[in-house]
Each structure stands twice: as C-alpha cells, then as structure tokens.
C-alpha cells in the first residue's frame, strides 16, 4: 500500500507535535508538583483554598496528553486504517486545513491552561484568597479579550479536527464488506 505524499507530510507533522507534547505533558506534571508545594495545606491554605488554587494547573498534564498526543495519533491511525481498508484518499486540501487549524489551536489552548493555572497559583501565593477577584483579574481584567482568545483557540481547534474527522468518515463511505467462510 502506497501512502500519499500529503499523508506522509501530515503524519510527520502530527508525530512531531505528539512527541513535543509528550515531553511537555511530562514536564507539566513536574511543574504542577513543584508549583503546588508553595501552597501547603495549612491554616492559611485550608483544603478548599488549596484545591481551588491548584485545580486549573492540575488539569494541564492530562489535557496536554489528550489534546497534544492522543488525538493527533488517533487521526493518524484513522487516516492509515482508512487507506488500509480501501477507503478513498482524503484530499491534500482537507488534511492541510485540518492540521493547520488544529495544531496551533491545540497548542494555544494548552498554553491558556498554563496561564490560567499559574494565574490562580500565583494570586493565592501573593495573598489573594477571593477567587471571584482572581477570576476577574484574569487577562488583566479584560473579559472581552478572554472570550476572544478562548473562543478563537477552541473554535479553530474544533473546526480543524472536525474537517479531518468528517473527511475521514466520508472517505470510508461506500465500502462494503463481505464475510468469508472458513472451514
């Protein structure tokens, strides 16, 4: 089976991204552990405060693996198995649009999680224990900027992944399988 050149390009791009995000995800777990040591359970930081201040940073590790490693590898697998099963080739245009929307947006989404996580951790470490106030000061207090950045990153990530998944789904249309009997 010959893998089309544009598939090879996408495979390389997604595998490199997944490798980089694997390293990042591992490091983010270490960063989380080290950063939260500065907010120990105490009278100043009771369990509720500790949990709320570290929650957003705790999510980065798993999201980096899911968004940055598992989803790109799943897309590669779907494209490859689609070819293996005799599906049509997804066009270069669809793979390019899908990957160039998904990858930068996925990276931006994870960076936003890091920013939010450290915003909360550092605010609590500096003595701010009012989480409504911490949330309002996020992005310098600009709610509009926050909505724009989150909206663009999540929407373009979803559109990019949607383009790829729908193209893969359509490439499999019309395939018929027949059972073979074995003695």
Summarize the structure.
The chain is mainly α and 183 residues long. The protein is built from 5 helices and no strands.
Structure description:
The chain has helices at residues 5-36, 47-84, 92-125, 131-136, 143-171. With 183 residues, it is mostly helical. It has one domain (5-170): Four Helix Bundle (Hemerythrin (Met), subunit A) (Up-down Bundle).
Outline the fold blueprint.
Elements: H1 5-36, H2 47-84, H3 92-125, H4 131-136, H5 143-171
Helix pairs in contact: 1-2, 1-3, 2-3, 2-5, 3-5
Keywords:
183 residues, mainly alpha, Four Helix Bundle (Hemerythrin (Met), subunit A), 5 helices
Helix vs. strand class: mainly alpha
Low-confidence stretches: none
Give the overall shape, derived from the CA principal axes. Answer: elongated
Order of helices and strands: HHHHH
Helix content: over 70%
Which CATH architecture is right? Up-down Bundle
CATH topology: Four Helix Bundle (Hemerythrin (Met), subunit A)
